[in-house]
Write a structure and sequence with these properties.
The structure is a single chain. The chain is of the alpha+beta class. The chain contains 15 helices and 29 strands. Strand 26 and strand 27 form a beta hairpin. The two termini are 35 Å apart.
């Protein structure tokens, strides 16, 4: 979860209370204080609340929570003269754009640091490492509208942020620190995304780097915001969160016309929630009026519309509200976690280790004894990781999410080995050898089974090592197996084998295919073992 730095002086100015009062109440706000320093506090917020990833956003919510300013934070946004055009050539590269203009800002060092921190936190939380969203903030006084979002030739030159000489965009991918970090997002594109003004001056090369020309400083009063990406909803979310934060910093918001469409819309969304359901879930006995009062403390618009109904206006920046229970969570925060009575459980039981837990423990003991480190990959992943990069055919019983929050988490895992390969990719610049394993649920259709996998990455990893690990693991689990030739395309032909028990294939082991290594960006061989233990629980 992200840790956000909140400067005391700026926070006190925005909230209107002393640092002592704010710090005392912060833990009851659904946050965790990491560090108390002389001039700031570092606070860890949940990843589902990106609207809190700045001093401005945190102060807005604290004013409500502490009873200073309740109800919906309404941001006036007036029609503005600025417009964008989007090149159709970006359709397969980075097609979506969100924008707004903020005027009349009075920025100091602390507010600039806060906004830059929000930008980077949103790159991680909403943008998934800039893959889905990249954000730019520009000094509007240095450029001339209208603006164009182009699919540019790769040899276009301009001065990138923090440098004083021109480079081509291809050179930036090789030599600029940001270019090296995010080159993988655009390197294969035939053209690069580029934002230019009416005089053909470069504002930004998303998702890589802004231009030095439009650097935001303490003299900046008018800011142009751009959010570009591959996911429309994520782009809109980031635009709304940043617009609201800049308004909290004292700016006046103006709309921007993008190919004839006026953006952004900061109107709240409406929903009606049940008081009875909230009370049942939280164990409280609230009436509709009290529940509405609590929601107003959490900066919702709320009013009683019946004995069991409250109409709620959800702020534009609250991307985490997807279910009524998300609203009820804020009711609990406003009510006060410290006010909930601790009640002993009414059910007394005698604990006993379940068979699946016993089997997991035996797998852990065996693989830890062989020198492997346990990891816990997410249950949700992507078809790209499970199948495309491993050269395997998609499973016919693959369980897909109807409304995934991202492409990276769109299906339930059917095996564990590809996820361990992804972890090796994340750690490819760490020291070798790396030996990882996982044991946990795998999903086939609507059924859940148990699987395990282990990978070993180093210069001498080979079939013999995989065979030794598979043999040791099966012996420890009491599985009498035979090894037969395999045709699994994730492994090298002639260096792969299947584990078979009574005519049923339960797993595979061997040396990972070079094309799979390349797909995960690995430079060293990998020996791997994968076993489906569903039938042995």
């Amino acid at each position: 979860m992200p840790v956000i730095t909140l400067p005391y002086r700026y926070l006190e100015r925005l909230v209107g209370l002393s640092r002592q009062t704010i710090v005392e109440r912060l833990p009851m706000f659904g946050s965790d204080i990491e560090r108390l320093e002389e001039d700031h506090v570092d606070v860890e917020f949940f990843a589902n609340r990106p609207d809190l990833f700045s001093t401005e956003g945190a102060a807005r919510e604290l004013r409500g929570f502490l009873g200073i300013e309740e109800g919906l934070a309404w941001y006036e946004i007036v029609p503005g003269p600025v417009s964008f055009s989007v090149d159709p050539g970006l359709a397969g590269i980075r097609p979506f754009l969100g924008s707004a203009v903020v005027r009349g800002l009075s920025l100091d060092e602390e507010s600039i640091i806060s906004l830059m921190g929000l930008q980077e936190a949103l790159h991680w939380a909403v943008g998934r490492g800039r893959r889905k969203v990249a954000i730019g903030l520009h000094d509007l006084a240095r450029v001339t509208p209208p603006f164009r979002y182009l699919a540019s030739p790769r040899d276009r030159r301009f001065v990138p942020l923090d440098l004083d000489e021109e480079m081509t965009m291809e050179e930036m991918l090789e030599h600029h620190p940001k270019g090296r970090s995010f080159a993988h997002l655009v390197a294969e594109a035939p053209r690069f995304p580029l934002i230019v003004d009416a005089d053909d001056q470069v504002l930004s090369f998303p998702p890589i780097i802004n231009g030095e020309l439009t650097r935001v400083s303490e003299t900046t009063t008018d800011v142009l915001l751009d959010c570009t990406g591959t996911d429309r909803r994520a782009v809109e979310t980031a635009t709304k969160i940043l617009s609201a934060a800049l308004a909290e910093a004292g700016g006046r918001l103006e709309t921007v016309e993008i190919d004839g469409i006026v953006t952004p819309s900061l109107a709240p969304t409406l929903r009606e929630v049940s008081v009875g359901e909230c009370n049942r879930l939280l164990g409280l006995d609230l009436d509709a009026g009290t529940m509405a009062d609590l929601l107003r403390r959490m900066r919702f618009g709320a009013e009683r519309v019946g004995d069991d109904l409250v109409r709620v206006e959800v702020p534009c920046y609250r991307a985490d509200i997807m279910h009524d229970w998300d609203v009820f969570e804020d009711v609990a925060i406003a009510y006060g976690y410290e006010r909930f009575e601790a009640v002993p459980s009414k059910t007394a039981t005698i604990a006993e280790e379940q068979p699946v837990s016993r089997l997991k423990r035996e797998v852990r003991e065996a693989l830890c004894g062989l020198g492997y480190l346990e990891t816990m990959p997410f249950v949700l992943t992507s078809e790209d990781v499970l199948f495309t990069r491993t050269r395997r055919a998609p499973a016919p019983d693959l369980l897909r999410l109807l409304h995934p929050i991202s492409e990276e988490q769109s299906v339930a895992r059917t095996s564990l080995m590809p996820l361990l390969m992804e972890l090796l990719e994340y750690n490819r610049f760490r020291e070798l050898p790396q030996r990882l394993f996982a044991v946990g649920e795998i999903v086939h259709g609507y059924g859940t089974g148990l699987g395990t996998a282990a990978v070993s990455c180093h210069g001498a990893a080979d079939f013999s090592e995989a065979y030794a690990v598979a043999d040791a693991l099966c012996r420890e689990l009491g599985l009498g197996y035979s090894a037969v030739e395999s045709d699994d395309p994730a492994f090298i032909e002639g260096r792969r084998a299947e584990l078979v028990i009574e005519g049923v294939t339960i797993g595979v082991f061997g040396e990972i295919h070079p094309e799979v290594l390349d797909a995960f960006g690995l430079d060293h061989p990998v020996a791997a073992v994968e076993i489906d233990l569903s039938g042995f629980v």
